[in-house]
Each structure stands twice: as structure tokens, then as C-alpha cells.
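Session log. Operator J.P. requested a structure for one protein chain; no other inputs attached. Running the standard single-chain path with C-alpha cell output.
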Amino acid sequence: MCYLFLLLQLAVCGGQSTLTLLQATDPRNVISITDVGEEDGRVRPLLSVAWSSDGALLVTTTQGGDVGLWVTSLPSLGAFNTANQLVVMSSLTDALLHTFSTHTSLLPTHTFSLHVEPSLLALGPNLLAAVVHNTASFYSTREGLSSSSSTSSSTPQFTITFNATVSALVLNVSHCAALCANKAFLRRVRYTKCHTFTSKLELLLLI
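Structure written below.
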């Protein structure tokens, strides 16, 4: 039996190939139970577990010499716009779009299944941008919300590739501004309606 505690989770390996994650403040609350030491019908008992420094990854080793790497938590990644919308990542590739109304606290949530694992999100009036390194993929939030389905396709409408890694991105109706290697780049997005940034503050936030 092996116990390992970090932050608010307790990892327990025991009972042959079973890995159990418990809530540290209340060990009776089981977060998940996973069989990690079985392969081709053979049971390989777990020997040890180890957390990464940020608690996002868990490493397991078995008596057969197998090493497993498990994602136990995701960093908070999200964005918001001035249209009372908030988008947050619920998994490595699924983004949840929440729309708030003055009449009701929360309208139905829409899920975007992205084709990438983004490191940065930006949300404009009409588009959701998912950024990986120097490439931003743009998904239409208008078409997604008008669809009868609660989940949109993983195919982006278009992509924009910048000259360097994007560290910040903001969107309005007609343009996106990206911060790349301490330089701000302004690119037009595929919407014909003309609109400018509401204030200089949006661009200053990039510097």
C-alpha cells in the first residue's frame, strides 16, 4: 500500500493494480478509481506514485517496469467578452461557452470540440480563438449558438499563423490583435461589419 498527498488530493495505490484518488480534506470522498496496472489480461501491481510539482500530473510505476503518466487536473484556461459570455476549458480539447442574460442567470451552455489543445483562448463577439504556439484557430460562436445541437464541430472556420509564439490575443468584430515577441500584430478576421476597438485599453493590455 502506498500513500501520496499533494495539495487537496490524496493518491492511494493498493489492491493489485488499483489507483485511487481521494479528497485530502475528506478521504471518504473518492475522486476516481482507475486500474492502471493491467495489460493483455495480466495484472501488474503498482509499486509507487509521484506527483508533479504543480499537482497536475501523477506518475505510476508497476512491478513489471511500466511507467504511467496521468493528467489529474487541468490549468484554468478561459476568456470572456463584453457580450456577457464566458468560455472555459472543461478538458484538453473541449471548451464550454456560457452566456449570461439580464433576465436569467445563465443560458444553456454550448460545447466546442476543438481540434487542438490550446495554451491560450480569446473570445470576441462572433469568434472563439484557440491558440497553440504561433497559430490561432477561429471558431464561429454565432453559428454554434444558432445550432440546435449543444456541441459544435471541431473544424475551425480559418486559422492565422503569426511570426512568433502568441502570448496574448484580443478580438473584436473585425480584427484580432496578438502579442508576439513583445510586438503587437493587428490582423483582420473574416467579418465584413466594420468595428474598432472600444478603447486604447484593449491594446494596452497586450503590452
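Operator note: The two ends are 51 Å apart (CA to CA).
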